[in-house]
Amino acid sequence: DRKSAHDALADCVSCNPAAVAAVEADWAPSESAWSARAGSQGEQSAVSAFHSGVRAALDLALSEQGLLEMIVDVISSWLSNFRADMSEAVRASGLSSTGQLKQIDQAASKDEKVRERLSSWQSLLQQKSVALAQAAKEWSERRRAGAAPLAFKGFLGDSVLNPVADAHELLVRLRHLVARAKVMANAASVTRPSDLAPSPLLVGPCTACCF
Known about the structure:
By secondary structure, the protein is mostly helical. It contains eight helices and no strands. About 15% of the residues are buried.
């Protein structure tokens, strides 16, 4: 609601006394009341603009979620095949994904056959990386007409220096982003709870202890 958005905005600028004062001075119980007081047309109050900005950011994050999930699935399949193939030459079972990559690099520095196999994977993932970067760019351009497409420079495409390590790093980061996008999706669908006072609904010990 409007009061909650106002409180959230005030909290965001709480480190700036002047901004807090401006937000408080801008407060009105409704947008129509703010417009009547301000005597302006076509403008928004700070609360309304803040709410619109948050909503736009949520919509953008959710629109990109499908692309990020697709990239996560593709890169996961690359690295799964890579680890399965390299495990025939390097025993790295029981280690984390990062630990496996480090052990493979160490083995490649000592064993020529392992080095050659790793080099072939680097070349293959370089090609796949370029193709995936192009696909992501085209997808983003179709969905975000007129806006700059999402960029994965340094992780996908011609700019990649270490295809295996860069793909792993991108996968870790995108998994975190996707997880956060899902939380944001849930938050976007939340509505204000009903007022149950004066008789709260006690649904369990954790809830009951809050009253």
